[in-house]
Amino acid sequence: MKRSLWPRAAPAPAATQLRGLAGAVLAGLGLWLGGGAQAQTHAELEAMSQRWADAALHSDSSAGLPLRLQVQIGKLDSRLQLAACAKVEPYLPAGTRLWGRTRIGLRCLQGPRAWNVYLPVTVQAFGPAWVLNNNVRQGDALTAGDASIAEVDWAEFDSPVAANQPDWLGLEAARHLQAGQTLRQNMLRPPQLFAMGAQVKVSVSGGGFAIESTGRAMAAGAEGANVRVRMDNGRLVTGVVNAQGVVEVK
């Protein structure tokens, strides 16, 4: 029986919601130190950053995410000499997100000299996922006995975890996989329906007509893949492989 940890649509929106929430909270946070400009030690800035990041990840208890979140703040470069500042603001640099190994920025908004520095950050998101019980060779299809549920860090790598059994059951290993690895989307591929050089059916449709013919595949094909086919008359066409292994050309 196929097992699911939660509704199939949940994992991706959950991660998106988490990252969006973190970005919004961090973008709006700032620290007023009061009085005139004061000099902050590196330790003080790092402690502030820890509180900011914790708040960003844990402030919305209604999110209902199936993850246990942890954030670790790194160290500022010991060679930095920062001017006194009355208001320090954290922010997420463009193109970054609070997920896995990343960074946050700190900038002085009120002080005798503006400055901007970056802190390394590691965000861990622990939750249930499927972990391999044994090695799987490249090209082998995964069976129900190949993986079991365990708690893992979803944010350890960029590729999303295959959180539900239907996400990986019956798919092929895209490379050699080892016992103990968490199943992620970039490790998997649909089963190969035909090999390079195989004779395949081609369906050409458009403008109210449909024609079926045959040709020779220029590459191996799996469901959803784009492949080129050399038709019997020598013409090359490109189409998408459907679930039956027919190359559909629009």
SSE map:
Blueprint: H1 11-28, E1 31-32, H2 42-58, E2 68-73, E3 87-91, E4 100-110, E5 116-132, E6 147-153, E7 172-173, E8 188-189, E9 192-194, E10 199-206, E11 209-217, E12 221-222, E13 226-231, E14 236-241, E15 247-249
Parallel strand pairs: 10-15
Antiparallel strand pairs: 1-3, 2-5, 3-4, 4-5, 5-6, 7-8, 9-12, 10-11, 11-13, 13-14, 14-15
Helix pairs in contact: 1-2
Overall residue-averaged pLDDT value: 82
Which segments are poorly predicted (pLDDT under 50) over 5 or more consecutive residues? 6-19, 21-37
Number of helix segments? 2
The number of domains: 3
What is the share of helical residues? 10-25%
Largest sheet: 6 strands, antiparallel
Q: What would you report as the Rg, rounded to the nearest angstrom?
A: 26 Å
How much of the sequence is in beta strands?
A: 35-45%
Q: Between the first and last Cα atoms, what is the distance in angstroms?
A: 38 Å
- SSE-based structural type: mainly beta
Order of helices and strands: HEHEEEEEEEEEEEEEE
**Could you give the count of β-strands?**
15
Please state the overall shape, judged from the principal axes of the Cα atoms. Answer: elongated
